[in-house]
Write a structure and sequence with these properties.
By secondary structure, the chain is α+β, with helices and mostly antiparallel strands. The chain folds into two domains: 5-45, no CATH class; 56-152, no CATH class. It has helices spanning 5-9, 20-45, 56-63, 73-85, 92-103, 130-140, 156-160, 166-171, 176-182, and strands at residues 107-112, 115-124, 146-152. It has a three-stranded mixed sheet with strand order 1-2-3. A hairpin with a 2-residue loop joins strand 1 (107-112) and strand 2 (115-124). Helix 3 (56-63) runs parallel beside helix 4, helix 4 (73-85) runs antiparallel to helix 5 and helix 5 runs antiparallel to helix 6. It starts with a helix and ends with a helix. The relative contact order is 0.08.
């Protein structure tokens, strides 16, 4: 909520509200109050990984992450969140918790014969920040265990079951990669 000079003037006695001195004073005060409120809101927003902007640099330094300004804010947040979650005994729950910071969907973690299989359940295609996910999981999972990533793609049989023709797909102005990673909507 923005404070205005009128909001402050309403607190005065009726005969004082018309004073040019008070009007100028309260106008300046309102500007300062609103600037402080914006600063406080910014600090509050930066206390959470999910809404942080300028504090991302601080979080990255604290967690030993090399800052990469070419990444989007969301990608940087995912790396920070994942890195902060990756503390403790390495088990399925910890790996899932770290991976969930990146995917935005459900994953399944399976330990089997010296491998860890990460299966993306409800995401079509390869998640956008997969390289950072791989890097974080590799640093978390002991090196003697192989990591296998299983992705879900739309198959030709899935498209065929929709009973649409090639010509209809062609008219959708959609690329093969978009179909493979996101399906046909």
């Amino acid at each position: 909520m923005t404070i205005t000079a009128n909001d402050l003037l309403k607190r005065l006695q009726t005969f004082q509200r018309g004073s040019k001195v008070y009007q100028q004073l309260f106008n300046a005060d309102a500007i300062q109050i609103n600037m402080r409120k914006q600063d406080i809101d910014s600090i509050i927003a930066n206390l959470s990984y999910d809404t942080a902007t300028w504090a991302l640099d601080i979080y990255e330094t604290e967690l030993g992450i090399v800052t990469d300004k070419t990444k989007t804010l969301q990608e940087r947040r995912e790396v920070i969140k994942s890195k902060s979650r990756g503390v403790g005994t390495v088990n399925e729950a910890l790996i899932k918790n770290v991976a969930d910071a990146f995917t935005g969907g459900s994953i399944d973690v399976d330990f089997n014969a010296g491998t860890v299989t990460i299966t993306f359940i409800d995401i079509l295609g390869v998640p956008t920040n997969i390289d950072d996910l791989k890097s974080n999981l590799r640093s978390l999972i002991p090196s003697h265990l192989a990591i296998i990533y299983a992705f879900k793609f739309i198959l030709y049989s899935d498209i065929k079951s929709l009973n649409i023709t090639y010509e209809q797909i062609k008219n959708m102005d959609i690329t093969y990669e978009e179909i493979l990673n996101g399906g046909i909507n």
